[in-house]
Structure prediction request, 1022 residues.
Amino acid sequence: MRHTGLRVVAATVLAATLAACGGASPGDSTDENGGDSSGAGGGGEASAWILTGGGWPVTAASFERWNESNSDQRITVEEYENDAYKEKIRTSVGSGEAPTLIMSWTGGTLADYVANEQVVDITADTQELVDRVMPSVAQNGAIDGTTYAVPMNDVQPVVLYYNEDLFDQVGIEVPTTWAETLDAVEAFDEAGIIPFSLAGQSVWPELMWIQYLTDRIGGPEVFQAVLDGQPDAWSDPAVLEALTRIQELVDAGAFGDAFASVAADQSADAALVHTGRAAMLLQGSWVYATFHTDAPEFASSALGFTTFPEIEGGAGDPGNIVGNPANFWSISAAASEAERQTALDYVNEYVYDDEQLAAMLDAGSLPPVEGLDDQIAQSDDAEYLAFAYGLVQDAPHFQLSWDQALPADQAQELLTNLSQIFLGEITPQQFVDAMNATL
Amino acid sequence: MTLSIRSGAVSRRAARPRTGPPFWLAAPALAIFALFALLPLGGVVVLSFTEWDGLGTPSWAGTDVWFDTVSDPATRQAMWLTLVFVVLSYLFQAPVALLLGVFMAGRQRYRAVWSVLYFLPLLFSSAAIGITFRSLLDPNFGLSRALDSTAFRTNWLGDPDLALYVVVFVVGWCFVPFHALLYQAGVRQIPATLYEAAVLDGAGRVKQFRYVTLPQLRYTIVTSSTLMLVGSLTYFDLVFILTGGGPGDATRILPLHMYLTGFRGYEMGPASVIAVILVGVGLALSLALSRLSGAGRMQSQQAGL
Amino acid sequence: MAAPGVIRERPNVIGALGGLLWLLVTIVPVYYLVLTSLRRQQAYYAENPLLPPAAPTLGAYRLVLENDFLRYLTNSVIVTVVAVALVLATSLMASYYLVRSGSRLSRGVLSVVLLGLAIPVQATIVPVYYLIVRLGLYDSLFALILPAVAFAIPISVLIIVNFVRDIPAELFESMHADGAGHWRILHSLVLPLSRPALVTVGVYEALQVWNGFLFPLILTQSSSVRVLPLSLWTYQGQFAVNVPAVLAAVTLSALPVLAAYIVGRRQIVSGLTAGFGK
Prediction:
């Protein structure tokens, strides 16, 4: 099943890892008893938690492959729903109950794990893998030059999906600038079609709007100032303008009047588009797979995709994208040495191996790996994947979702205040004041 | 639940037991209760004076945590919402449950059949009810498409001015049957002779309800009210699944505020402060209710011991 | 209004109308639930949600059953049965002690336990979590049973004490005079005479434990110990857009309680009213 080339690579990495473990690696903690509680028996058995939905079945399948050929190094896998995972993983890590492989979106969470020495340094052990990954993605797993996490699934840029039939029906073009966007909103609204589907109940899809707008208007430096904790960083005029434009959109009926009841976890936002009730949807790349599963006919005939519109006079590069670079694996410092070894072996041998890459492309998800153009051109979803691949490769800046980038308490404040902006309950200035208070 | 009317007399006689049962009979209950309820309660009080992100070790922060949390506008808002939620829930559930219970106690056959149907919500867990109502109230794919009227296209759970009322209704839908069952059982305890006497006195249906049913049900009312009030004060599951506190902070009642602060924002200190506040208010409420209501009853209990 | 027994008056029109209204309010969501669970996934977006599906299917149910539903059901049954048995046993013993022991200690114990009525479960969840981890019970069914029992004890004791107190003191004294020990008194006197209270407590706590969401959410993580309410939550993530499948899982989760109700309804009702003969 595995290719000889990869096997050689794996063996080399394995040898390197063994050497590293023999010595004292920096993140090494002498915890033997943490291992028994994480679900693994003895020996080299490890554990991992993954999510459900989207492209996750591919990851689950890769663990199955691993377990079939490594019965002495089995990895037990638990699947969680997105929100449930975020809540559980933190308490598990905090109490030394974490699985061997800890999945994160990097950002503030990973920084917390590192600060509390709960994940280990894997710079040397994963160099080979990291070198194959797009730098804009891989860099998220490093803190101060040390790798603590490596990407493990698809790159997830946020793109603008649309229903071609509805554009034909109303007789307008897909907007590429902000002015065209406002015109499109008006045209669809008059035709009784929701211009943009938005899963406001889940709140996090609203982040995509403020992120793109802020980036287009003020560039990535604006949010970087927030991340750096500069006083009053939220007061940047770009943030205020982004918020104002959001409220203008809401007032113009761009999201319909029921967006706050639409939930993303049931893909109701995508359903609005493929059932012809809404024209466009700003969502992560994983929704492409959702369209194909839920409405295959629509997906092959009328699903269009493009980039977020330009904003005239904005300081940000229109090539910038936002989204999740990927999900990342870290290795728990509470795991025993044998467990860690198993986890590392899995990561080095099975993450982005040829079979995994093929399975991902089949599922319409995009591996953040360099040099895939040929394989993408041959895949069933060549058009979409090539679009997204180009988008990611050409992007001068790839902004990690703000709620993942920020520390958890600030992220919560952000989500609450942002949902109130969309509901028109607070003004942009009130938002800025509330967010500045968290810095 | 079902209460005897002659307890006062009985308990006086019970006042002088010569060989009471040994303490160890109560030990298992006490041990489990102390270990898994009292001890964690103490733990949460201690945590409320610390700062802890759930990952490292808690660090002592003294009364600052309390000051910051209580002065936080989000906490104030959550307190206010909780008050509104508790009052509205009670005003909705108590009359409906009482009337329904009395109605169900009737002997007509159709009522027996209806009673079985009234029982339906009790079959479902809060998770089940939350998921069902979210789907049902979806303005795009739910009821709105069944009845082609704009009234049902309302954005039930997505409108910040409406969501709290909808949550009150769904929570009521969930709990009314249980309380109705309590009242039904209570009504069936009332001696028929009382009603016969009332009829002889020329009392109509309303007067019978006012002068026989209500007074006879007073202990059931106390029990049911306590459960309702303390229950809605600390109610979490259904609100969590229905709205998660949203839209905005429109349904972010205290228990949810505590959970989101603790398990989404990872600020265990402030979350513990909110927890302690909840416990405090809950205790005060229970005590006040038992004082207020069953003064006579409670005293006879005390005498009995 | 609705006097039981002998009194027959003109039919209660307002009562019946009100009753009918609430009946509708109760039934519509359940009707919608069952109906939707019988739809095909595509039809969910197309058909009128209150009309019967054009092509009903049990496919959603099959999908749910194929996804470990029975394991979650078994877990829920085990947790509920064990927890209720423990609650009943410990609360009954404690109530006997609390009522019949005249000591000052018992009075203190009762007030402490009754204060427990107001302890909200969520408020203590963080310390409970650490306690469970320390005791090595994390991610086991015991992690769900023990805290559930602890939080059930106050209300159970309150209810049972009210019953045991109403047992005439002479009965205790005469049994004692006959040389009966505490176990025998408990078994032959307290148990039978407080049966209605035990039924009430049993039904109430069974529903509480069965429906519990927060403890399973925090105190377990593996699918091997997942209970039904939590499984509904995870099914929602797993089936995502397949709303009929999610609602089929919801429907299935209600069937065991329905079965229990059908079998035990008579007993529950008579249990509530028994023991008041004289």
